[in-house]
Design brief:
By secondary structure, the chain is α+β, with helices and mostly antiparallel strands. The chain has a single domain, classed as FAD/NAD(P)-binding domain (3-Layer(bba) Sandwich). Helix content is 31%, strand content 21%. It is built from eleven helices and 20 strands. The strands form three sheets. Strands 5, 6, 7, 13, 14, 15, 16, 17 and 18 form a nine-stranded mixed β-sheet that branches. Strands 1, 2, 9, 10, 11, 12, 19 and 20 form an eight-stranded mixed β-sheet that branches. Strands 3-8-4 form a three-stranded antiparallel β-sheet. A hairpin with a 3-residue loop joins strand 11 and strand 12. It is globular and about 60 Å long. The structure holds flavin-adenine dinucleotide (FAD). Flavin-adenine dinucleotide binds next to helix 3, strand 13, strand 18 and helix 10.
Length: 474
């Protein structure tokens, strides 16, 4: 272990101990506010005529009130309204559907649930199969409802920038294949036949993964849900929740008395007074190129496969859309940021983060020669919920067991948040067999220190080590 690595380990351990020490402090709710900025992503540019629904301005009641109109909220509305057509569902969204991470991400539709830690063979098979089934469902739902959504199903890579890690990945693939999981290991030359990536020693390739335009997917589902009777209100931020057998959900000009609610607010959930010590809102920058011509694509050597991510702490991730854009996120220490007091919007225009975007594009150019100087067509920032162990949790809480929640998917939420809607619907109905014992059901989170330790710890960690705070799996 180098001197730097051992220092990093000490800081990591110190942060974790600090977190344990302050976890009992109460949080000063009054001085934080919910900030939600405009979604300027490439994905949003494909729904130029979208008009948000009118805000809630009455007092109403519901069997289920869903707070948040991203993948978690919309997938819950979809599964719940299918299983319980006679129950009244109201969904309230602070701004417009898909305005959060679901409409601003890298678009990679991946298997697995991030941060589960070690699993038995049987659990490994069950978790893989559940996410695989979710991706299949997304595709069949697009087909069944004739949604106008751009997506790809030609596989994604996790590539290795270190020879030893590539060797270990190959052994991992051998194990997965033995238990029936059809992931492939491709050596560097085989990777380059699909995407001409430089500086990689091989990659895990999962042919069933893909890419999804989340803004189109979610917004195209709105009329499907409304036809089933789901009421959807946009520009309706929830400011307060009063728990009880009937829960009062209060918005600026309205109120919902609900028998049960779903917190589908991921990186914004702390602002409602829930899970404040469990995660921090992390801002991640992403940009896209203009659509590349067939000729340009060939020159770069992106011939097949939806995308790749790498094996580094400040992960690079990239996809190519059917329309020809390359979408690139991460890849630089300054491409990720935590803002004091859990701010949920990145201030200023994308141009105020030029240094970050320049650094990211340098990384892209190293992986894909010829792309480092390309024009950037769209630049945006998204907010995700990051827990210390990078785990998510999906479950139910509260004295009356009527507060459902799903959050903390890290950078792996496209599939997991779509799966969350099915899980919440199953938990509601007591159909828990499929999810029994899964490591993310009602999972606990390691506590993260509150301010000013949170901001200070994040800054120290990222500046001194170039890494994000992360507690090793227990
Ligand atoms: C930059 C970035 C890149 C990513 N890349 C990938 C990727 O390539 N692959 C992958 O699998 N995952 C990726 N992720 C993660 C993934 O996008 C998220 O985990 C997932 O979209 C979370 O969905 P959600 O519905 O839970 O949250 P969100 O999509 O954030 O939705 C929450 C919604 O709640 C609303 N809301 C918040 N507070 C309130 C309130 N008080 N009242 C009413 N409404 C409220 C918000 O406006 C928002 O619309 C990425 C995330 C980011 C930010």
């Amino acid at each position: 272990m180098t001197k730097n690595q051992s220092f990093a380990k000490k800081i990591e351990a110190g942060l974790y101990n600090a977190a344990r020490g302050v976890s009992k402090l109460s949080y000063p709710l009054g001085w934080e506010k919910l900030e939600i900025d405009e979604n300027r992503s490439l994905w949003a540019s494909y729904t130029p005529d979208y008009k948000p629904n009118a805000p809630l301005n009455v007092s109403t009641s519901a069997d289920l009130c869903i707070i948040g109109g991203g993948y978690t909220g919309i997938s819950t509305a979809y599964h719940f309204s299918h299983h319980y057509p006679d129950k009244k569902v109201v969904l309230v969204e602070a701004k417009s559907l898909a305005n959060g991470a679901s409409g601003r991400n890298g678009g990679m539709m991946l298997n697995w649930v991030y941060g589960t830690g070690a699993m038995s063979d049987e659990m490994t098979q069950r978790v893989y199969s559940a996410t695989h089934q979710t991706i299949e469902n997304i595709e069949s739902l697009i087909k069944e409802h004739h949604l106008d959504v751009s997506y790809r199903r030609d596989g994604c890579f996790e590539v290795f920038t270190d020879e030893q890690r590539a060797i270990e990945a190959k052994a991992e693939v051998d194990y997965l294949n033995r238990i029936g999981i059809p992931i492939q290991f491709l050596d560097a030359d085989q990777v380059r036949q699909k995407i001409n990536l430089q500086g990689v020693y091989g990659g895990l390739f999962d042919p069933s993964e893909g890419q999804l335009n989340g803004v189109q997917f979610i917004r195209e589902l709105r009329p499907v849900l409304e036809a089933r009777g789901v009421e959807i209100y946009e520009n309706s931020p929830v400011s307060k929740i009063n728990e009880g057998k009937t829960i009062e959900v209060i918005t600026k000009n309205g109120r919902i008395n609900a028998k049960a609610i779903v917190l589908a607010t991921n990186g914004y959930t702390g602002k409602l007074g829930y899970f404040r010590k469990s995660f921090f809102p992390l801002h991640s920058h992403v940009f896209s190129t203009p659509p590349l011509s067939e000729d340009e694509s060939q020159k770069i050597g992106w011939n097949g496969s939806a995308g790749f991510s790498d094996d580094l702490n400040r992960i690079s991730y990239a996809t190519k859309t059917n329309e020809g854009h390359i979408v690139f996120g991460g890849g630089s220490n300054i491409s990720y940021g935590y803002l004091f007091n859990n701010r949920t919007a990145f201030p200023g225009s994308p141009h105020s983060a030029t240094a970050a975007f320049d650094d990211m594009q340098k990384t892209m150019g190293q992986y894909l020669p010829g792309t480092g100087t390309m024009k950037r067509a769209h630049m945006w920032t998204g907010t995700l919920a990051i827990s210390l162990r990078r785990n998510c949790s999906i479950g139910v809480r509260g004295q009356h067991k009527n507060v459902y929640y799903a959050l903390g998917y890290s950078g792996h939420g496209v599939t997991a948040a779509n799966m969350a809607g099915k899980i919440i619907t199953d938990l509601y109905g007591g159909n828990t067999a499929q999810w029994q014992g899964m490591p993310f059901i009602n999972a606990d989170f390691s506590p993260i220190p509150l301010e000013p330790f949170r901001w200070t710890g994040y800054q120290m960690m990222t500046r001194l080590t170039g890494k994000s705070p992360r507690e090793p799996h227990r």
